[in-house]
Amino acid sequence: MHVAMECDMTKGSPLRLIISFTIPLFIGNLFQQLYSMVDTIVVGRFVGVDALAAVGSTSGFSFMVVGFAQGLAAGFAVLISQRFGAKDMPMIRKTYTMSILCSALCSVIIAAVFGLLSMPLLRLIDTPENIIEDANTYILIIYLGIGTAIFYNLFSSVLRAVGDGRSPVCFLLIASVLNVILDLFFVIVIPLGCAGVAIATIIAQGISAVISFFYIKRKFPMFRFTREDWKLDLRLCAHLMKIGIPGAVQFSVCAVGVIIVQAAINGFGSDTVAAYSVGGKIENLITQFFPALGMGISTFAGQNLGAGNIERIRKGFRTSFLIMCAGAFITFAVAMLGAEGFSYIFMDRNTTSPTIISMAVQYVHTVAWFFIPLGMIFIYRTGCQGLGSGTIPMISSIAELVMRAIAAFTLPIALGYTGICFASPVAWIGAAAILPFCYIYKMRSIIRRIRKA
């Protein structure tokens, strides 16, 4: 049976389509943030500040592998959105099955490599000794269960590629509620501490992945594969990896920058680690509109590229930029007015040092002034990935890494913790400055290719 949840973005108002597609993704992203946020909240309130710092100190490494999963899945889905725009149903099924095989391979490799390197990596960034064991326990479990994140993100990206942005939100809601329940169970009922919240995350995400898989199989006839669809197509797998790996590596490259900053923070002690962790969680929560908008323009661009609607792609990017500016203004207001209130979600008002709270608030207030360059990154980087470019996201990510590293090594020396707060804004500006020009170059190359054809 055919389902109306799929959305053909090659027809109709770009403004209406992008907004209606982005809003469910935004809600879904908020729920996805609950995975890591609830971990931090539960250990911060029921175990202690050191446990909060332990989980927070792994944020860069967690971002590295989970971001890899998100980028890989988004890259694989680019081909599916293009096939959907071209109405090539047999190739949609083949691309889907090969994406599953490639995802399985990447899951095994990542779990094996990072599982062996978890403790050496934590020592490399001078994680404080009073939290390093808990930090290793938490991140090791996340590494070993990375397959659940990869497959959840793959199935969610597949649904978005055909315009269904609402179903992943429902699955995330189920998983988020389950994650909260399991976090409390594994920390309060069975006092497993940091290990408990990691186990809860993996179980919740795995259940969400399974639900997504069977939903796709039941509701979308175009994805009902046959035995022939599972026949290994090395050429298609190579094409998937060509698009998926750069998208995945871009997140990992950004994560390296986050890890560099984390190394600088670790030298300030566990209280500063806890404050920065809370500030980062608040930033991630309130800025989720930007990646949602990026996924919206990526799907819009991918489908319209498949349909050959070049002028419509341009209009979509212009529309997205205006939406982003409005979203940045609202997000800025939320950051300035709500930072302190959000901080008390993570830490007990009566037992937490006011200094830790003030440092968390300082971080949020600092980065809030730079939300427009952050929004530009998601529009042009993710949008160009939707146009089939793996190179542009990579270049932007490298620029972001270089700028973040320079800021992390220089600004804290002169400005202390304030310098750390400016590391992300400096990185965002460096990445955003080159992306509009890269987008123009990509569009011109697409037009030249079409004219030659």
Task: Tell me what you see in this structure.
The protein has 453 residues and is an all-alpha fold. The chain has one domain (14-452). It has helices spanning 14-46, 49-57, 59-85, 89-124, 132-144, 146-161, 167-189, 194-219, 234-266, 270-286, 289-307, 310-346, 354-368, 371-386, 391-415, 417-421, 423-452. The longest helix has 37 residues, at 310-346. The model has no long low-confidence stretch (mean pLDDT 84).
Shape: globular
What composes the largest sheet? none
Strand tally: 0
Q: Which residues form runs of ≥5 with pLDDT under 50? A: none
Give me the strand/helix succession.
HHHHHHHHHHHHHHHHH
Structural class based on helices, strands and sheet pairing: mainly alpha
Radius of gyration over alpha carbons?
21 Å
Compose a concise summary of this entry:
By secondary structure, the chain is mainly alpha-helical. The protein has 17 helices and no strands.
Features:
single chain; 453 residues; mainly alpha; globular
How does the SSE layout of this entry go?
Blueprint: H1 14-46, H2 49-57, H3 59-85, H4 89-124, H5 132-144, H6 146-161, H7 167-189, H8 194-219, H9 234-266, H10 270-286, H11 289-307, H12 310-346, H13 354-368, H14 371-386, H15 391-415, H16 417-421, H17 423-452
Helix pairs in contact: 1-2, 1-7, 1-8, 1-10, 1-11, 1-12, 2-5, 2-10, 3-4, 3-6, 3-9, 3-11, 4-5, 4-6, 4-9, 5-8, 6-8, 7-8, 9-15, 10-12, 10-13, 11-12, 11-14, 12-13, 12-14, 14-17, 15-17
